[in-house]
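Tutorial, part two.
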Amino acid sequence: MKSNLKMSRSRAVACVIAGAVLISAAHAAHAADPVTLNIVDVAGDLQLTQKGFEAFKAKYPNLVSNITFTNAPAPQLPGKIKAMQAAGRSDIDLVLTGTDALAAGIEQNLWEKLLPDHAAVFPGVLDNYAPGPRRMQDLAQGYGLEVAYMPAGPLLEYNPAKVTDPPKTPEQLLQWCKAHPNKLIYARPANSGPGRTFLMGLPYVLGDKDPRDPINGWDKTWAFLKQLNDCVPYYPGGTSAVMKELGEGTRDMTVTVTGWDINPRALGIVPADFRVQAFDNMTWVNDAHYMVIPKGVPKEKLEVLYKLMNFMLEPAQQALT
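Running the prediction step on this input gives:
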C-alpha cells in the first residue's frame, strides 16, 4: 500500500514537472514567433533603404514574418503618434524621418530613448559614424539612429533641352522663373528634403544678416521667396510628385539635393541626361535621415527592431544608400 502511494506521488510530481516544461516550451515558442513590423517613412528614405529592410526579412525569417511600408507627410505624423499613444495603441513600430519630425517627436516626448538607455544593444555605434554624419547624429540626442546622410545642397535640377543657360544665383533664378512662369516647381519645405534645403541654403547665398535666425535674420530670403512665389504654380506635398512632373516634362526645373538627383535617375523617373547646377558661392546644407521608435512598441518587437537597426548600419546596407 505504501509502495503504491509512493508511486502515485512520484507519478503526480512527474506529471506536474512535465506539464510545467510543456507550458514553458509553449511560452518560449510563442515568444520566438516572427513578428510583423510596420514602418512609416516621412522623409523619402525608403527609396534608399527599402532593399536593406527587405534583406533583413529575407535573412531572418525566424524574426520577421512581414514588413509593411507606408509613406506619410512629416507634419502630420507627430500628432498621429501622440493620439495613438494616448489611446494605448501601437500601430507604428519604426519611423524613418528627417530632422523635422525627429525634432517634433523629441519635443513632444514621442520617441523611445535609445542612447545611452540601450547602449548595450548598440555597441560602439557612435564610433562608426564619420565626422560629418556624427555631427548630424548628435542632433538626435539619443532618440534615433542616423541611417542616411548627404552633403545635400541646395542645387537646381533642370532639363537641358529647355534650359540652355541655367541660373547660378538666386537673382538669375528669379529672372528665369519670371520669364518661364509655371516651369519651376518645388515641394513644400515642411515635407520635402530638397524644399527644406533650398529654404535653409538661401540665407547664406543671399547674404542675410543671420542665416540661423529665420525670424530676425532672413529679411532678404523672405523678400526673395515672396517674389519667386508669383511664378511658381503650386507647392506639391512631397518631392516624389515634383520629380514625376519634372520627368514627364510638365516642369523644366526644380530644386534638388544630391540624393534626390541620383535616385530618380537610377529609377528612370527623371531622364539620365537632366543636369544639376549649384549656386555660386553657396554654403552646403547637410541632410540626414533617422530611424526612431515610437514609445509603446511591445518588448518582443523592440528586440527585433534593435537588431534591424544594427543591420541597417552595416556596410552592406549602407552601400545601398
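The chain has two domains: 33-150+288-318, 155-281. In part three we will examine how such features are distributed along the chain.
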